[in-house]
Amino acid sequence: MAYPLRRTLRLEAPRSWQTLNLAELWEYRELLFFFVWRDVKVRYKQTVLGALWAVIQPLTTTFAFAILFGRFGGMSKQVDGPYALHVFVGMLPWTFFANAVMAASNSLVGSGHLISKVYFPRIIVPVAAIASGLVDFAISFLVLLVMMASYRVAPSASLLAMPLFLLGTILTAAGAGLLFAALIVTYRDVRYVVTFVMQLWLFATPVLYPITMIPPKWHLLYAINPMAGMIAGFRASVLGGSVPPNVILVSSISAALLFAAAVRYFVQVERRFADVI
Amino acid sequence: MSSDAIDVHALGKRYTIGATPIGASTLGESLTNWVARPWRRFQHLAGRGDGAADFWALKDITLAVGIGEVIGIVGPNGAGKSTLLKILSRITSPTEGYVDLHGRVSSLLEVGTGFHPDLTGRENIFLNGAILGMFRAEIVRKLDAIVAFAELEQFIDTPVKHYSSGMYVRLAFSVAAHLEPEILIVDEVLSVGDLHFRNKCLGRMQDLRSEGRTVLLVSHDLTSVRQLCTRAVMLQRGHLVDDGDPAEVTRRYERMYQDAGDEQTGAADRPHPPADYHLRRVELRNAAGAIARDFDAGEVMEIHLWSSGRAPENSYTVEFKLLNGDDQVISFGAANPVRATYYLADQQHFVCRLGPLPLTEGSYAFSFTVGVWNKARWDFWQKAVRFTISRCDLFGTGHGISNVHDGDFVIPQEWLAGN
């Protein structure tokens, strides 16, 4: 048996200041794995195109935006290199981010039955929802490599920095996702807010336009949106180019703060979930 | 370290009802609540509350469960059984007091939690096992045993959405049965599935007991509490009111809750009589002619029924349906056409002599109908009266047969040696 025998567990009223129990999370790591595995398996099980769906979404939005903003909006003159590639590179982490936040937000309510019947650290549910989105991301990243090859754009050594920006994106997605998920358990109407917020958030993030379009004096304010630094950094690390370091710094701090606050709020209210779900 | 497996100390769980809804479901409501709160608090302090109050689902529960004990929790709906289970399973947290659990705990509030219809049986075993707290390596090791126990070898790679409900339950239970907790907390999961599987489940519970594991079982099925448990406690409105030998506790519980009013005596008056012609009173009498509610198998019973007055017409019938403890109809009898007895309109007292009763130990009830066969039903008195068969030993061997495992009646039988 993996557990030490005769371990004593005390159940009592939640203290006013809850902290994340990392040891317990580690014990439940396999459950996290199984939730991700289930999500991925179920998602592709009864679909004709299977994993292709992971690619179709960012590709179609990319081409729609490329035609709309690139051709008619004259945006293609604002970026170095092909505009479609520019948008697709931004769209990859953004699609992951937006899907992850949406999935995480609705994950707790969707697992309401489970939550009222079995104990496990509740944070696993939204985290699994985010993690299963990474599979889609990995698939569409392969498409990006193909696309870069066809545009004859070679990645440089800066590609090594890409995982850091992906990590920042995951952190931000977890921050927003956990916050929304916990809020939606208690306040169902927050669900509509999430859709709305994500739409606005896209335009506050340099996905369709380059960060160079933002006047430098606004950069620090702009970078409070953690996704600003993450998307700009992601794109620069894949396609080359540079991002003002203060943007990266402020966005990173902002992402970390959002994540910490969300985890903090989540663990504070998670003991209530089963009573209100 | 104490020799207890579960220590419950001064446990209480409070829900707030009324003024602040438990789950204010929209942000708007919550904001309104928040704005209104100081005013309510003031009213409350001023002793003018709006009656909306705290509701203690559990209060002052102190209970020590020793290692190897199988403890049954009984109580009427709303007594706090589910709340206690939810606290012990860590689904919700107590408001005051604490629980110490000494050992690895598994809780089964239902079987098949987290099953996904699109996944195959095998995949669901892994998923469900993980949800119940098993490690992957442990599931891999037990996989064959789980599949064999569920008797689903052929279908294990079929998505469970194609399973029959029986197969589904078997698979779900099979996973649960292979948990090896030191403390098992079970809700009334025993009541699912067919009889064969229910027995398998009870057998598994008995195994757990003989392996010295601690089991806490919540059940409405008093017979299984009597059979499985070494101890029983009764909850009533959130308080622990009785603790002791399962046979005694369940008997006291039955006396308190199942035998309200006249039923205790094996007689009943119609509680809410219809305005029209109806049956108004029933008495069950034993061979000595006394009103009784406890019978032994093999005894005869007389059912006495009274109607409210003159019947609408001649040549009518009175019928009974016999129901078992699960409220399933298990037998039927009628003045006519079964016995070709036709009553006259003036007749107001009917007697049915019944028996010897071939029934197994358990609780039964009668429903009655009066009317004209195949034509009119003047009155139907559902579950008019209950009775129990307290002893079923038709052949005097000292071995009782209960309706929990062995069906509702016994067929006269003889066992011989063949050639």
Describe the structure.
- The complex is a heterodimer of chains A (277) and B (419).
- By secondary structure, chain A is an all-alpha fold.
- Helices cover 68% and strands 2% of the residues of chain A.
- In chain A, helix 4 (83-110) runs antiparallel to helix 8 (190-203), helix 4 packs across helix 10 (226-239) and helix 6 runs antiparallel to helix 7 (162-186).
- The longest helix of chain A has 28 residues, at 83-110.
- Chain A is globular and about 65 Å long.
- Chain A starts with 7 loop residues before the first strand and ends with a helix.
- Chain B is of the alpha/beta class and 419 residues long.
- Chain B is built from 8 helices and 18 strands.
- Chain B has helices spanning 27-45, 81-88, 121-131, 136-150, 165-177, 195-210, 222-228, 246-258; strands spanning 4-16, 54-66, 70-74, 96-102, 105-108, 183-186, 214-218, 231-236, 239-244, 267-269, 279-285, 294-296, 301-307, 317-323, 329-334, 349-354, 362-372, 376-391.
- In chain B, the strands form 4 sheets. In chain B, strands 5-6-7-3-8-9 form a 6-stranded mixed β-sheet, sandwiched between helices. In chain B, strands 12-18-17-14-15 form a 5-stranded mixed β-sheet, with no helix packed on it. A 4-stranded antiparallel β-sheet of chain B has the order 10-11-13-16, with no helix packed on it.
- The radius of gyration of chain B is 26 Å and the shape is globular.
- The N and C termini of chain B lie far apart (62 Å).
- The chains are: A mainly alpha (277), B alpha/beta (419).
- The interface between A and B is large, with 42 and 49 residues.
- Strand 1 of chain A pairs antiparallel with strand 4 (96-102) of chain B.
